[in-house]
Every structure is written in structure tokens, then in C-alpha cells.
């Protein structure tokens, strides 16, 4: 995409397949994200096949629109979880988004959902940093 204005466009939590039921999104941020074409594809790409779930796994996928624009999906699967976390972005920053997914997962597993939503809101509103600069996102009492 030309000159993306934000770090990510959507965060999702996706439940893996349950018997004959395919994977599905159980929550997303922002809640008003409505690109149905992308939202329909995310569960399938988040759980493309059965795999070893004994360690944290990160991977990415790329969705291409009809006008040849890319949306990157960054996934995090954790051992013992029936859900995965996904960030969708126009930026191909694999390491940055994997670290961010680890942090968001930590907020979820420590029952700090208020901090999770505050962090997502701050990230969503943050501008894309200039090359070579650091990203610092204050949230929830400047944590």
C-alpha cells in the first residue's frame, strides 16, 4: 500500500476448528472494521492445517486485493490455546508484529483485558514511525 497511515488495520482472536466446524473470529479490534473479504479469509489462513502446538509459533500470510494491494497477516499460536491472535497490517514488519503479538498475548493471559484494549487503541491511533526510529506506545496509565 502506498504510505500507510497506521501500524495495523485490525486485530483478531480466532478460534481453531472444532470438529466439523471451521475456524472463526470471536473478537476483533476495531469493532467497526468491515472488510468482509479479508475477515472471511483470516480464519482459514490462521488455521491452514493441523500442526504441532507444543511451542509458541509465529507465521505470516499475505492477502492480495483485486487491485494488487497487499495486507499482511501476522499470527501467534500458543501451546494449549484453542485460539490464535492475528494482526493485519499494510506493513511487512514481521519481527515487530511478532513481538507485539507476544505482548498482547501476555496482557490476555494475565487477565489485563482493560490494558489489552487500551494498548490496541493506542497502537491503532499511532502514526507509522519514520525509518530508523523506535516505536513507543503508552497505554493504561503510561505503561
From TrEMBL:
GO terms for cellular component: cytosol. InterPro entries: DENND1A/B/C (IPR040032), Tripartite_DENN (IPR037516), uDENN_dom (IPR005113). Residues 7-143 form the UDENN domain. Pfam families: uDENN (PF03456). GO terms for molecular function: guanyl-nucleotide exchange factor activity; phosphatidylinositol phosphate binding. One of its GO terms (biological process) is endocytosis. This is UDENN domain-containing protein. It comes from Meganyctiphanes norvegica (Northern krill).
Amino acid at each position: 500500500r502506498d504510505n500507510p497511515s497506521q501500524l495495523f488495520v485490525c486485530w483478531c482472536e480466532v478460534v481453531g476448528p472444532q470438529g466439523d466446524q471451521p475456524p472463526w473470529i470471536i473478537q476483533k479490534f476495531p469493532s467497526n472494521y468491515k472488510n468482509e473479504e479479508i475477515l472471511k479469509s483470516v480464519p482459514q489462513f490462521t488455521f491452514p492445517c493441523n500442526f504441532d502446538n507444543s511451542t509458541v509459533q509465529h507465521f505470516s500470510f499475505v492477502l492480495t486485493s483485486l487491485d494488487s494491494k497487499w495486507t499482511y497477516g501476522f499470527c501467534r499460536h500458543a501451546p494449549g490455546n484453542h485460539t490464535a491472535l492475528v494482526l493485519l497490517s499494510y506493513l511487512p514488519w514481521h519481527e515487530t508484529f511478532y513481538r507485539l503479538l507476544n505482548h498482547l498475548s501476555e496482557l490476555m493471559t494475565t487477565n489485563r483485558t482493560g490494558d489489552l484494549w487500551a494498548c490496541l487503541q493506542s497502537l491503532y491511533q499511532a502514526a507509522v514511525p519514520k525509518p530508523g526510529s523506535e516505536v513507543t506506545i503508552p497505554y493504561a496509565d503510561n505503561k
